[in-house]
Write a structure and sequence with these properties.
Blueprint (H helix, E strand, L loop, with lengths): L7 E8 L6 H11 L3 E8 L3 H12 L6 E6 L2 H5 L4 E4 L6 H9 L15 H25 L4 E4 L4 H11 L4 E4 L3 H17 L9 E8 L2 E9 L2 E2 L1 H11 L21 H10 L2 E2 L3 H5 L10 H4 L6 H20 L13 H8 L5 E8 L12 E9 L2 E4 L7 H23 L2 H10 L7 H15 L5
Parallel strand pairs: 1-2, 1-4, 2-3, 4-5, 5-6
Antiparallel strand pairs: 7-8, 7-12, 8-9, 8-10, 11-12, 12-13
Helix pairs in contact: 4-5, 4-12, 5-6, 5-14, 6-14, 8-9, 14-15
């Protein structure tokens, strides 16, 4: 028997339930949490992958959670208290086109899932998928809280609201956490103080996903922005790497040189990794990633990782092994608990702008802090971006709105306008249109 004061029986619908990354993290975090129990309905277009996660999930933890692969969105969503969306819009072959076909035209991308030619085409693929998901949530789980982890975050979350305006959805991203961890390292090095956990660094977050900025930061009574100014100046040329670490250790690591340069340029602390930040500007950083000490993550690497995870999954099934019980560092489970009234939480989320980002367009999906409590996600007023950052953010917001509309209506003309408006598209119009058409063709998307 569970203590009813600490444990609530709930249903989680997991769309993308065959995931070998995010789903396993959720399994681990749910097993480690003592406040909740219930069932997780795993829906995936790859039903076999969902069945594998059913087996792994039911071997994880102490049996508080029951996992079940289901064959339809209706079965997954019916009765759901919380819906998690974590899908790959398309395939890794599609993503390979997103990232590497533009290289034939001299355009390089470090991630290719948010902005740039890759992010735009991925958004066009994702928009109709998220329209279908929104319709299903409206029909089968209209009161469910919806947590989206899928990129392009802004386009996908915007589509949910576009199709179902009363949806209770928000986008979740961990990039700000990395900035908080960097500030912890800075406090230790420059002030000689240990920060027990990244949450002890208080930040005012403002912007759009992966182009997010910290305009205020503190630890206890200490204003950290002036400290960061000195920190960034010290490591602007060399980059910052804690002792024993190297940006070359992982394709996802960097030495923060892009972030330091952007702080010196704009006066706000960038709150995303260098790989994401670099793509929001003309190819200033992307033309020489070695100089700036970050990676262009190839889709070939992602495919190798996918094969490794498939082998790992087969081994886990054969050995009847559950997910490793190790905290992921994500906040999804704490968010769910807060929504259930089991502990309030202040964190960063992506929501339609109701004024929390004062100088960004109303209704656009913006990322700011929010207070999560029982059955409520309340965005926190975060002030205004510096004017020069506002101008850059608005350009991308305009594109994201156009991509959501074009993906939903299959309007190639509108999609192309967003495509050529992206800062990474520096081609003449004829070459830009040729690249656009080739990418659409490879993805089998476009006007019907």
């Amino acid at each position: 028997m569970f203590n009813i004061e600490t444990v609530k029986q709930i249903k989680i619908a997991y769309i993308g339930g065959g995931s070998k990354g995010w789903a396993r993290s959720l399994m681990s975090d749910l097993a480690l949490d003592e406040r909740m129990s219930g069932m997780v309905a795993l829906y995936d277009l790859d039903f076999e992958a969902a069945l594998q996660n059913e087996a792994i999930g039911n071997l994880s933890g102490n049996g508080k959670w029951r996992y079940e692969a289901v064959s339809s969105l209706k079965k997954a969503l019916s009765g759901a208290d919380v819906t998690v969306i974590s899908i790959l819009p398309g395939t890794l072959d599609h993503m390979e086109t997103d990232v590497h076909l533009p290289e034939q035209f001299g355009i390089y991308q470090s991630v290719g899932d948010t902005v740039g030619p890759g992010g735009i085409i991925r958004g066009l693929r994702a928009a109709p998928m998220f329209a279908d998901i929104a319709c299903a949530i409206r029909d089968y789980a209209p009161d469910s809280w919806v947590m989206n982890y899928t990129n392009p975050m802004s386009v996908c979350t915007r589509m949910l609201y576009k199709v179902f305006p009363d949806i209770k959805a928000f986008g979740c991203c961990h990039e700000v956490f990395g900035t908080q961890k960097l500030l912890c390292e800075m406090v230790k090095e420059r002030l000689g103080l240990n920060v027990k956990q990244r949450e002890d660094i208080k930040v005012n977050v403002l912007g759009i996903n992966h182009f997010t900025w910290v305009t205020e930061a503190s630890f206890r009574h200490i204003d950290l922005v002036p400290v960061f100014q000195e920190f960034a100046a010290q490591y602007a040329e060399t980059g910052y790497e804690p002792s024993g670490e190297s940006w070359r250790d992982s394709v996802f690591h960097s030495a923060h040189r892009v972030a330091f340069h952007l702080f010196e340029t704009y006066g706000a602390i960038p709150a995303a990794g260098d790989r994401h930040l670099a793509e929001f500007f003309p190819a200033f950083y992307l033309k020489d990633p070695e100089k700036w000490k970050f990676h262009l993550t190839s889709v070939g690497y992602r495919k190798q990782e996918s094969l490794r995870r498939k082998k790992e999954t087969d081994h886990m099934i054969k050995q009847k092994q559950g997910a490793a019980l190790k905290a992921s560092g994500e906040e999804g489970v704490n968010m769910i608990a807060a929504l259930l009234g089991l502990g309030d939480l202040m964190t960063n989320v992506n929501l339609p702008n109701e004024g929390q980002a004062a100088n960004l367009p109303m209704g656009a999906i913006v990322e700011t802090n929010a207070y999560i409590t029982r059955n409520r996600v309340q965005p926190i007023f975060s002030g205004t971006l510096p004017k020069r950052l506002e101008m850059l953010a608005n350009r991308h917001i305009s594109n994201q709105e156009a991509v959501a509309e074009a993906g939903f209506t299959q309007d190639d003309s509108l999609a192309f306008q967003a495509f050529i408006n992206d800062p990474l598209i520096t081609l003449d119009r004829a070459d830009a249109e040729r690249l656009f058409r080739e990418m659409l063709s490879c993805n089998q998307i476009g006007a019907r």
